[in-house]
Structure to design on (336 residues):
């Protein structure tokens, strides 16, 4: 389903001047990713929130041979439900029902012009979706910003979570406390308006994929660039700015000792993520995003947590090595 997009993206990369013509070469998608197909049917949950009616897009993929358990996959800041494709297929084949929502403000979900983004609010939205679907005690798998969300969800609804899996979550350190200068929503917004396929590709290569780019990642660059430069780019950029402010100002690291759910940490050791660190003084920048240390500290702070390390992978181990990651994930959640 993604082949036409991949072909167009590769053609653009091969063309002379592709780097400078990114915004022209990239397909333009609508504010809810209209024009970009997901690998599974997209469903929508309509609900009231903050005095408005919103729609949350989600995937709900049945198990091939049901084992009675449900995995809920929570995407990161620059990811969508579709980027979990490999994990959805592997989990479904292993007997799990799989639900993967697009959070409000992201991907195929509503982009409200006025919304107080908090992790509590996103957790409440997700809880409402799962209640609507009759899911009572899912396994939560959260990656990056989705890891922060999953941690908050487990803190809010500890009896409604069977197991917690955090994949290279952000929020393992308090960037402000470590010296990141204040960044206003207006600053975030102006930065987001400058997003292009070139800037996305460069950032993801350095952070998500430990410096190793492969053509199979290109559809996800096209997805983000097309969303950020399409007809809804201002609405997308504004919600993105609000989300960045939420991430930076709501670190979850201080609450790790309160997590009362069996927890698995899955950490790519070459990750160096620290949002906004390019705005920090050099000496501060050098102290941020050391995931080998951060992952081990989190494993010690969360009662009974188990740590799986991927020595050669970056911020997105589930995408760099889907086969190895899926094997470790299914083994990790299979142990009762």
């Amino acid at each position: 389903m993604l082949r036409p997009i991949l072909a167009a993206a590769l053609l653009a990369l091969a063309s002379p001047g592709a780097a400078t013509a990114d915004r022209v070469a990239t397909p333009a998608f609508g504010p809810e990713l209209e024009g970009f197909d997901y690998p599974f049917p997209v469903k929508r949950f309509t609900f009231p929130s903050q005095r408005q009616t919103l729609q949350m897009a989600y995937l709900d993929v049945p198990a091939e041979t049901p084992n009675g358990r449900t995995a809920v996959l929570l995407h990161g800041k620059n990811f969508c439900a579709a980027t979990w494709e490999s994990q959805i297929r592997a989990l479904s084949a292993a007997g799990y029902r799989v639900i993967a929502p697009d959070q409000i403000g992201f991907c195929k979900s509503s982009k409200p012009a006025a919304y107080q983004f908090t992790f509590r609010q996103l957790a409440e939205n997700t809880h409402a979706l799962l209640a609507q679907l009759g899911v009572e005690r899912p396994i939560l798998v959260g990656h990056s910003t989705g890891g922060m969300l999953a941690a908050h969800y487990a803190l809010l609804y500890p009896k409604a979570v069977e197991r917690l899996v955090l994949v290279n979550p952000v929020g393992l350190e308090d960037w402000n406390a470590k010296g990141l200068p204040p960044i206003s929503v207006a600053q975030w917004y102006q930065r987001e308006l400058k997003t292009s396929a070139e800037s996305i590709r460069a950032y993801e290569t350095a952070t998500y994929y430990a410096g190793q780019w492969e053509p199979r990642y290109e559809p996800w660059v096209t997805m983000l660039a097309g969303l950020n430069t399409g007809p809804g780019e201002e609405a997308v950029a504004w919600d993105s700015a609000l989300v960045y402010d939420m991430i930076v100002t709501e670190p979850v690291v201080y609450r790790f000792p309160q997590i009362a759910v069996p927890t698995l940490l899955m950490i790519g050791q070459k990750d160096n993520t620290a949002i906004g660190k390019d705005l920090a003084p050099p000496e501060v920048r050098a102290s941020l995003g050391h995931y080998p240390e951060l992952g081990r500290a989190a494993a010690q702070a969360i009662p009974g947590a188990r740590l799986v390390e991927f020595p050669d992978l970056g911020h997105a181990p589930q995408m760099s090595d889907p086969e190895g990651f899926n094997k470790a994930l299914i083994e990790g959640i299979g142990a009762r």
Residues 233-249 form the longest helix (17 residues).
